[in-house]
Design goal:
The protein is built from 23 helices and 23 strands. The chain is of the alpha/beta class.
């Protein structure tokens, strides 16, 4: 079905919650774009010309990049509202990932690619078509700081008029134009729709909030152009900074709305307020071309089964062997909530999904699967197509939020977190994801955290277990297992990380590969598995770099001296350092996937409840009756009960 008719506009309003539309649907908090007939593709944005030599730097952060981002948003709105047939793709240089996503969008939407040699001509083209009616004038932020690296309100001369212009432009069919470049657009015959050079975000909120989308907000640095097209597509407020005003915006948003982008300064101070107001962050401030990649929809353009990353690695618990004298451990990569990374420098990077040796050992990849299934289906399809039997995808939270703080400022925090899980429950089921990763702002064993686990587990279908990290330190829970009941009334584990592969982190269980390996080798393993000391996992800090080194005399020899160019050049992060750690593990240590770790935890530590759950799944009523009276005191008895169920095989399918 063509996506540029009135039906697409109706669908957009229903998803976005824009004036006249309804609330976001489950698993639909990212509004999409209809199918285009044409996709205009510009050259590399890094090579964009200056529009005002001496005043405009040009290139990646120049005035033209800002204007074209806003043009891409207006083009997408026009497609959704039946006023246009074309989308705009801004070139991302030699980035292999984005080249793959563009090829996927063209293939799946059957749109025609149109090369653009003069990006300014695009503005004229869309003006002639009536897609844009003029421009909103803004002033570039002159403060002396790098994007997203400092609190803007502390910088002299800070201006956020680019954010004001982005929101105003979304409401008046305009593009945004920096004041130094205004003569170029006046010469085209465009008129100024509004001048917001001396306006700030508080004025914007007071003046225009009643016309903006209350189901989504953008947190964007005025110094960067990225993501502004999607903000215009969704008629989203654009704000920045960790301030009381930002909290007012979070309070104004509907509960369980995404905060798109990233904020500046201390990470906890940025994420905690939105968590407390029942909002979740999508780290997407460096995403490119979301107005194009979101034109592909899961389940419509691509069948759900072909998006299942874990098709080969899914664990059948009855296929496992019951063992003693073993220690079971798993490794899981951090930061999977980061959408911009997974779209931009994750799948093809040799440190991560693109590692030449990927598949050599079981490994867990946290991923923003719910977000990818909405705005980056080609990325998710690529992961599913290239996954090995040793790759296990884990849903990273469903946005970045602190589970123990979620909704604390609302009247009913429990309801808020339950409704957020409802937003992703169907997607998890469609993708066959059975393990969830969560992060807490404080103690992961606190009453607030445990209440969140209980509520989360009861909302997600087929949840086998939860992995937990603390904000600081990641392994603060020290592997102490908690138990909750899932939606199917099965007892499942909540397992905090016990170890942390993190450079120069000086605390027990943390450090470089050799140090972590030594800690795992010293863990419990003799005799039957009787407690959580036999089962644990390591959170692998995605950004920590190490180098191969002889650690015989110094366990920390793999640490990188940042002042030594040779060491920096040889350093690696992500997948390969985990391999170095595994090479140092002793024979009694069994490295398993995160899903297998969850199942072994259930089988060994909650044997009766787990066998009951498996028998119900298999429809083995006779076994259930036998199990009620069966003694499971010793390891021999537990093993025999497990083997008895395994020998029965699947029974009749239980009635729904």
């Amino acid at each position: 079905m063509s996506g540029w008719n009135s039906l697409a506009a109706t669908a957009f309003l229903a998803l976005s919650g824009a004036p006249g539309g309804g609330p976001a649907t489950a698993a639909g908090y990212w509004p999409g774009v209809g199918h285009p007939r044409f996709i205009y593709v510009t050259g590399d944005m890094h090579g964009f010309p200056s529009l005002a030599p001496g005043r405009d730097p040009g290139g990646r952060f120049g005035a033209l990049a800002f204007t074209l981002e806003s043009l891409a948003g207006q083009a997408a709105r026009a497609v959704n509202e039946g006023r246009g047939q074309s989308l705009v793709w801004m070139g991302v240089g030699a980035n292999a990932s984005y080249q793959t996503w563009l090829a996927g969008v063209l293939r799946l939407t059957r749109a025609r690619r149109v090369e653009v040699t003069d990006p300014l001509a695009l503005v004229k083209t869309f003006a002639r078509q009536g897609v844009i009616k003029g421009y909103v004038l803004y002033r570039a932020d002159p403060s002396d700081r790098r994007p997203y690296e400092a609190q803007p309100e502390r910088q002299p001369g800070y201006s956020n008029s680019a954010n004001v212009a982005t929101t105003v432009a979304s409401l008046c069919s305009g593009v945004i134009v920096e004041e130094a470049a205004e003569p170029v657009f006046r010469a085209m015959g465009l008129r100024c729709l509004e001048d917001v050079r001396d306006r700030d975000e508080e004025w914007l909120f007071a003046t225009y909030r009643h016309r903006c989308n209350r189901r989504l907000v953008h947190v964007l640095d005025p110094k960067a152009p990225d993501d502004r097209g999607y903000a215009i597509l969704t008629q989203s407020l654009c704000v920045f900074g960790v301030t009381p005003f930002t909290e007012r915006v979070y309070a104004w948003l509907k509960p369980n709305s995404p905060v798109v982008g990233w904020n500046a300064g201390d990470e906890y101070r940025a994420v905690s307020p939105m968590s407390r107001w029942g909002k979740f962050l999508t780290a997407s401030n460096w995403c490119s071309n979301l107005t194009v990649t979101s034109a592909v929809r899961a389940g419509q353009d691509v069948p759900w089964p072909s998006l299942q990353v874990n098709r080969q690695s899914d664990v059948d618990p009855l296929s496992l062997t019951w063992e003693t004298d073993r220690h079971y451990t798993a490794f899981v990569l951090s930061d999977g909530d980061n959408l911009q990374w997974q779209m931009g420098n994750f799948t093809h990077h040799a440190w991560y999904w693109g590692a030449p040796t990927r598949g050599r050992f079981p490994f867990g990849w946290t991923a923003c699967l719910a977000d990818l299934s909405q705005v980056a289906v080609p990325t998710l399809q690529y992961m599913a197509t290239t996954a090995t039997a040793n790759d296990t995808a884990i849903l990273a939270e469903a946005g970045y939020f602190y589970a123990d703080e979620y909704g604390a400022r609302l009247a009913d925090p429990g309801r808020a977190i339950e409704e957020h899980m409802d937003q992703v429950a169907a997607t998890m089921a469609q993708l066959g994801i059975h393990v969830l990763e969560l992060i807490t702002g404080g103690d992961c064993r606190s009453p607030a955290a445990q209440e969140a686990y209980r509520r989360i587990a009861r909302r997600l279908r087929g949840l086998d277990g939860i992995l937990v990290i603390q904000y600081a330190p990641y392994n603060g829970g020290q592997g102490e297992i908690m138990w909750v009941e899932n939606r199917e009334h099965e007892t499942i584990p909540v397992i905090p990380a016990r170890y942390c592969l993190w450079a120069k982190l000086r605390r027990p269980g943390c450090g470089p590969p050799a140090e972590v390996a030594q800690a795992i080798n010293r863990a419990e393993h003799a005799g039957p598995v009787t407690g959580d000391g036999f089962l644990d996992w390591t959170i692998v800090h995605a950004w920590s770099r190490f180098r191969q080194a002889d650690t015989t005399a110094n366990l920390r020899a793999e640490e990188v001296d940042e002042a030594d160019p040779a060491q920096v050049a040889d350093a690696k992060a992500g997948y390969e350092p985990v391999g170095w750690c595994i090479q140092r593990l002793e024979p009694q240590v069994r490295v398993v996937s995160p899903q297998e770790l969850v199942w072994r935890t259930r089988l060994y530590l909650r044997t009766r409840e787990t066998l009951q759950a498996l028998a119900r799944r298999a429809g083995q009523e006779d076994y259930l009756r036998w199990l009620e009276a069966a003694p499971l005191t010793t390891d021999t008895e537990r093993r025999a009960a497990f083997e008895r169920l395994r020998a029965l095989g699947p029974g009749p399918t239980p009635a729904p």
